[in-house]
Structure prediction request, 70 residues.
Amino acid sequence: MAADHPGFAAIKRLATTKSEVRVLVYGQSISMQAWWTKTQRWLQQTYPNGKLLMENHAHGGCSSQCLIGH
Prediction:
C-alpha cells in the first residue's frame, strides 16, 4: 500500500516530531520542474511546526548513467 511507503513515514514525522526531516529530490529534467517547490510549500503549510529540509539535486539533460556517476 502506498501509505506504508518509507517516504510517507518520513513525511508523517513532520507532524509528530521536532527533528529535522530531509527530503531529497533527485532525477532528470522532470525533477527540475515546479512540482517539487509546490510540494515543499504544501508540506510547510500542512506541517508548520515541522522542521523540513528539502533540496533538489536533479540534473536536466543527463542520462541515467550520469545520475549514478558513470
Q: What stands out?
A: The chain has three helices and two strands. The chain has a mean pLDDT of 81.
